[in-house]
Amino acid sequence: MNVRNLTPAHLQACLALDQASLGGLWTTAQWQSELADPRRPGMGLWQADNLVAMASGWLVLDELHITLVAVAPEQRRRGLGRQVLEALLAEARQQGARHATLEVGVTNAAAVALYRSLGFQDAGLRRGYYRNGEDALIQWLRLPPINDAEPGCG
Ligand SMILES: CC(C)(COP(=O)(O)OP(=O)(O)OC[C@H]1O[C@@H](n2cnc3c(N)ncnc32)[C@H](O)[C@@H]1OP(=O)(O)O)[C@@H](O)C(=O)NCCC(=O)NCCS
């Protein structure tokens, strides 16, 4: 398994994983914009030539707005969602993000549990946020600055 930044060269792989895991959340044009914009970081996990997990977001000032996290259905509950999200958070920290935020459907138990396991905290509710009328939970995570001193041994 290796982790790489998503680039425009990965368009077809992203479309395929989006289709398999989210039923096609974004159109080809939306994916092209995501992959071309340096303020929209994306990370992918690859098993040989197959993209098996991806996460992406938008950098707005010092905030990372996470827009998508997806793992291939047959690869779930193996820690890949956590791994790819951690890679995205690390990338965003490198680019100066100090907080990460997202909206998640209140009934998406897997995603809510994944985000909570990474330390995201509930910060509010957007009622009727999704097209089907489902409410969205708003979650936030503080990202320590990259130059925070790590505890030393001497
Ligand atoms: C949400 C999703 C990304 C999780 O990916 P994953 O690789 O299965 O998650 P992980 O294996 O890294 O799980 C990390 C933690 O999240 C929680 N979790 C993940 N899936 C869970 C589930 N189905 N039920 C309960 N908790 C779950 C657990 O705490 C888990 O830790 P554990 O396995 O040690 O108990 C995946 O289910 C998915 O792609 N869903 C469809 C797309 C989606 O809804 N994306 C979010 C909105 S864009």
Key descriptive features of the protein:
154 residues; alpha+beta; Aminopeptidase; 7-stranded mixed beta sheet; 4 helices; 29% helix; globular; binds coenzyme A
Please give a quick description of this structure.
The chain is of the alpha+beta class and 154 residues long. It contains four helices and seven strands, in the order βααβββαβαββ.
What would you note in describing this structure?
- By secondary structure, this protein is an alpha+beta fold.
- It has a single domain, classed as Aminopeptidase.
- The protein has four helices and seven strands.
- Strands 1-2-3-4-5-7-6 form a seven-stranded mixed sheet.
- Helix 3 links the parallel strand 4 and strand 5.
- The protein is globular and about 35 Å long.
- It starts with a strand and ends in a 12-residue tail after the last strand.
- 26% of the residues are buried.
- The model has no long low-confidence stretch (mean pLDDT 95).
- The structure holds coenzyme A (COA).
- The site of coenzyme A has 21 residues, from helix 1, strand 4, helix 3 and helix 4.
- Coenzyme A (COA) binds next to helix 1, strand 4, helix 3 and helix 4.
